[in-house]
Every structure is written in structure tokens, then in C-alpha cells.
Amino acid sequence: MKAHPIAARAMRMGITLLVVAVAVFFMVRLSGDPITIMAGPDADPLQIERMRERWGLDRPLHEQLVTFLGGILQGEFGYSIATGMPAGELFLERLPSTVILGLSSLALSIAIGLPLGIIAALRHNSALDRFVMSMSVMAFSMPNFFLGILFILFFSLHLRWLPSFGSGSFLHLILPVMTLGLSSAGAIARFARSCMLDVLNQPYMLAARARGIRPQRRTILHALPNASIPLVTILGMRLGDLVAGAIIVETVFAWPGIGRLLAESVIRRDLAVVQIIVLATATTMVLANLAVDIAYGWLDPRLRKS
Fold it and tell me: Which residues are in the ABC transmembrane type-1 domain (predicted)?
């Protein structure tokens, strides 16, 4: 892929992140006054005013916005009102747990969803195809929190095989990964089946079949490479959704990641922490989209000029 399309996409990425930064700045301030919540209903008005002055919340909004954007450019994201710690420090402290959970669930969803989608396409309209698609729809449609609660009831309370919360060992990771992974696996299976069916009906696949090429060879050398381009889209979306998709699951399983930190920070109106997490989520999404665009050019040379 040429350099200038990537540069144009990188510029659009920067503009998108700027818009997100401004939007989240105003939205978190419209949600309520963090100083009033932190001080309590019986706090002295003079004390509240001093706290606002300490955190810079007494200044006009446009001045706060300039300070906020200038801090981002310098790698400074402010301090947590609830703990007094740098927001960046709190974010980095929770980041490894979310990365482990997100990548593990993504690997599980690919390992389950991709083969099932391909098999369903190769056995189109069979009983196996209908069964796989039924299970996929159920997994995709079921809310994460409900699926997580079912896993807790069955594997933790009934069978007592796995812990239901925390992160003390590898066993604590299994239920959250299953909850996130199975939901994504359903979506990947449906998308993989649709992509494979579209490719299998193309003239060049029919010609390969007429030439007597074995089914395994047709699938691996002809169908999969051509079906991989649209599949990259959904895989990129799942990769970009690592933080946002884990919020509910981390809360259900008390997993000490960024999603749970975001939920806690929203309740406490912890402005700096909410801002950095939302910005990190947006950055993950736009980087995933940029990676998908680059992967398109690598997979299909015809797209490199666009």
C-alpha cells in the first residue's frame, strides 16, 4: 500500500480522536458534579468551593478544555478525584488484566467461530449447518451479563469447579473468557459462513470443481484466501472492541480490568479516569480500523491504489 493513503487515514484518525476527546470532555461534565458527590450532602459550601478550585473545576469550561487537550499532547491525563493518583497510572495498572482477558477471548472466538462457520458453509442446508447457525444466533443474541450469570450458577455454585470472581489464578480467567469468547464466536461463525458461501458460488470455484480439484484443495487454496478479506473486517472490529466489550463482563466477574474501572469511575464521576479510558477505547478502535485497511491492501493488491 502506498504511503499517502496511510497518511490520509492517519490524519482522519487524529481528527476522530480530537472529536472524541472534546465530546467526552463535555459529556462527563454534563453527567453531574463530582465534587458534590465526593463531598457528600452535608459538606460546607465553602469546602466544596475550595475543592472545586483545587481540581480546577471553578474555571470556565473553555479554559478547562484547553488545559485538557494540552495535557493529552504532553501525555498528561490529569488526576483521579477519588484517589488522587494520576489517571494514566490507574489506567496502566488495570491494562494488563484487560489485555489478557480480551486477547484470550478473541483467540477462543476465532478458534471456535471460524471453523464452525466454514464447516457450516461447506455443509450448506444440512442438519449440521442449521444446528451451527442456531447455536451461533443463540450465543450472539444472549446478553453477556446473562450468560456470565448462567456460567457462575452452573460452574461455580452447582459444580464448584471454577471461582466466580477475582483474578488470583488461571482458573479465574476461564469463566470471563468463555462469556466473552462464546458471544463473539457466534458472530464470527455467522460471518464466516456468509463469506464462504459467497465465495463457493463464484465462477472460478465452479471451474475448479469442474477441473476435478479435490475439495480440500479448493477450500484451502481458493476459497479461504478470497473469503479472508471480508473476514478481516469483523476480526478487526472484535480486536478494537477489547475494552468496550469487557465492561459488563469484568463487572460481573469482579475482574480487575479497565472495564470495571470505567464502571466504578462513572459512578463516582471521576472525570480524568473516565476521559482516559474512553480515549483509549476510541484509539483502539481507530487503530484496529487502520490495521484492517492495511490488511486489505496486503490481501488484495487491487485495493492498494484506493
Answer: 95-296
pTM, whole model, 2 decimals?
0.78
The b/e string for 114-148 (b: 16+ C-beta within 10 A; e otherwise) is: bebbbbbbbeeeeeebeebbebbeebbebebeebb
- Tens of pLDDT, residues 65-93: 888 888 888 888 888 888 888 888 889 98
pLDDT, one tens digit per residue, over 130-139 is: 888 888 888 8
CATH topology of domain 96-268: MetI-like fold (1.10.3720)
Residues 121 and 188: their CA atoms lie apart, in Å, by: 13
Phi-psi region at 44: left, alpha or beta (left = phi > 0; alpha = psi -120 to 50): beta
* Residues paired with residue 79 on neighbouring β-strands, in sequence order: 86
Alpha carbon separation from 219 to 70, 133, 187, 200 (Å, rounded): 53, 20, 21, 8
What are the residue ranges spanned by the domains of the chain?
Answer: 96-268
The whole-angstrom separation of Cα 291 and Cα 283 is 12
